[in-house]
Amino acid sequence: MATLGKDIVSAIKRQIEAFGAAVTVANVGTVVEVGDGIARVHGLSTVGYNELLQFPQNIMGLALNLEEDNVGAVILGDCSQIKEGDEVRSTGRAIEVPVGDALIGRIVDPLGRPRDDKGLIETERTRPVERVAPNVVLRKPVDTPVHSGIKAIDSMIPIGRGQRELIIGDRSTGKSAIAIDIIIAQKGGDLICIYVAIGQKTSKVAQVIATLEDYGAMEHTIVVAADASDSAPLQYIAPYAGCAIGEEFMEQGKDALVVYDDLYKHALAYRQLSLLLRRPPGREAYPGDIFYLHSRLLERAAKLAPEYGGGSLTALPIVETQAGDISAYIPTNVISITDGQIYLERGLFDTGIRPAINVGLSVSRVGGSAQNKAMRQVASKLRLELAQFRELQAFTQFGAADLDKATRERLERGRRIIEVLKQPQYFPMSLGKEVMILYAVTSGYLDHVPVDKVIACEENFHRFMQTNHPELEQRINEDKEIKPEIEEALKATIMEFKQGSTY
Amino acid sequence: MPHVSFSKDYAQTALHIEVVTALALDNGDKEWLSSQFEEIVGHKVIIEAKVDPSIIGGFKAKIGDMLIDASIRNRLETLRKSLAELGK
């Protein structure tokens, strides 16, 4: 402490000695118009695009429109304190956010200022919020899975590290719930999670944070929050700030995952800015660069080649649809940018299939190559059984009276698979557990269990495995494949379980 | 130089420079200042003197949208910022 005090004294002395030397030359302008978070500034002839501007009272702005005789700027702060005629200085800097390990467990705003009560964020490093995505040379195909802990996702829509997987669906169909479950599932793992809340209700953000804290998931998570009450400029930069925070970990060779919740609200915030800046409106009044807005963000998700550290940044953007319309403007844009989507459906949600994933419309274009061998061993059969089941189900809707035995069995198995894929919220599973139950159901070991008892049976199964043969789950977790001897042991154990169970 | 306004007040084009000081300038000061500026910019200049006690001392000169800030207030502000950085 004493040395620290001395350091500060000498540093202050140095500063005071240098005092008087500074004459600053700055490019300045005057505010001609201010309102709605936007200012028009006369002057500022040498200011650059996206340059930070210094308004009076320490309020910062961002130069977004460089026009012939004025500059259109958005104000990152309280615009009611800015008056016409105020002096604006250019800073020569772009927006930056603090980055590094010190942010883990913290809640920050899009400028990296703390929003929790844990004091200052002690980090030296900052990164520009906007950056060009890593190029082809730096990248490598996705090859490691993100273990989501959700059976339906890990088996049928696998997500790889460095992938961009969209979560899409109507309001309250469990989009955020999936993202939060995935964050919770990373507990004790090596994936650093960043949850970016854009234009959400503050109450919902508080609820998400409380959930993450309850499940001990804040220890590996950073929350970047721009609530509905924050100004549109802050909401606009929030995902880029979250991305920059994640990129720092990626470049250190670590793995990071960033959830953008949600990009529909982000598009609305950007539309507001653009209209107020008088940029020409296009389809649905969105500006012309609305596609680039999201593509440049999602392109920054990457898996780096080993010679560049081998880190990764996985992006899970969330988009809300209106009345299930995935062919609306923003959803189609984001679908075309991402490497696949998880489509959640209201109808499924209401019939009790939760997570309400529509397996037919959901895809993962690159995740398959990142899937573990163990999961691939059970998933291929699962996918086939489910596809056959859906076909038969549609066919037999008009009367199932005289079906042959094989068809009936296939239908029965399909129903049980659907039941097994149901999973309660905040209940992520280890790879071993997922593989074992999926193995049991696809191999027909649950065919004799009544459909409405399958969930209870699964619970018993996991409990039985945990108490009697915990080594099986462990082996699958470690080997990441079902070796022949494990398969034999698994078969024997399932038979043992069947004899002991009442179904 | 960008955003510079010229006027034909003099026989040749002159450059308007707004000079803000804490205390009022007398004619001698103004002449001295304009000769100094003329030397730098290589142009006839017109000094528009303004008084603003809040800058404490020194001067601020505005040529078009370029601001040369040599005021005591600005230096104090820079010092305050750098000291605040130390405290972080």
Pairing-aware structural class of the strands and helices of chain A?
alpha/beta
Number of helices of chain A: 15
Helical stretch tally of chain B = 2
Strand content of chain B: 25-35%
**Largest pleated sheet of chain A:** 9 strands, mixed
- Note poorly predicted spans of chain A: none
Q: What does this entry show, briefly?
A:
The complex is a heterodimer of chains A (503) and B (88). Chain A has helices at residues 2-18, 151-156, 175-185, 202-214, 232-251, 263-276, 290-298, 329-337, 346-350, 373-395, 405-421, 431-442, 454-468, 470-479, 484-500; strands spanning 24-35, 38-43, 51-54, 60-66, 71-76, 87-94, 96-98, 107-108, 126-128, 145-146, 159-160, 166-169, 191-200, 221-227, 255-261, 302-303, 312-320, 340-344, 363-364. Chain A is α/β, with parallel strands linked by helices.
Describe the model.
The complex is a heterodimer of chains A (503) and B (88). Helices cover 39% and strands 20% of the residues of chain A. Chain A is an alpha/beta fold and 503 residues long. In chain A, the strands form four sheets. In chain A, strands 8, 12, 13, 14, 15, 16, 17, 18 and 19 form a nine-stranded mixed β-sheet that branches. Chain A has a six-stranded antiparallel β-barrel with strand order 1-2-5-4-3-6. Chain B has 88 residues and is of the alpha+beta class. Chain B has one domain: Glutaredoxin (3-Layer(aba) Sandwich), CATH 3.40.30. In chain B, 35% of the residues lie in helices and 34% in strands. In chain B, strands 1, 2, 3, 4 and 5 form a five-stranded mixed β-sheet that branches. In chain B, helix 1 (27-41) links the parallel strand 2 and strand 3. Chain B is elongated and about 45 Å long. The model of chain B has no long low-confidence stretch (mean pLDDT 80).
Secondary structure blueprint with pairings:
The complex is a heterodimer of chains A (503) and B (88).
Chain A: H1 2-18, E1 24-35, E2 38-43, E3 51-54, E4 60-66, E5 71-76, E6 87-94, E7 96-98, E8 107-108, E9 126-128, E10 145-146, H2 151-156, E11 159-160, E12 166-169, H3 175-185, E13 191-200, H4 202-214, E14 221-227, H5 232-251, E15 255-261, H6 263-276, H7 290-298, E16 302-303, E17 312-320, H8 329-337, E18 340-344, H9 346-350, E19 363-364, H10 373-395, H11 405-421, H12 431-442, H13 454-468, H14 470-479, H15 484-500
Parallel strand pairs in A: 8-14, 12-17, 12-18, 13-14, 13-15, 15-17
Antiparallel strand pairs in A: 1-2, 1-6, 2-5, 3-4, 3-6, 4-5, 7-9, 10-11, 16-17, 18-19
Helix pairs in contact in A: 5-6, 7-8, 10-11, 10-12, 11-12, 12-14
Chain B: E1 6-7, E2 14-21, H1 27-41, E3 44-51, E4 58-63, E5 66-71, H2 72-87
Parallel strand pairs in B: 2-3
Antiparallel strand pairs in B: 1-2, 2-4, 4-5
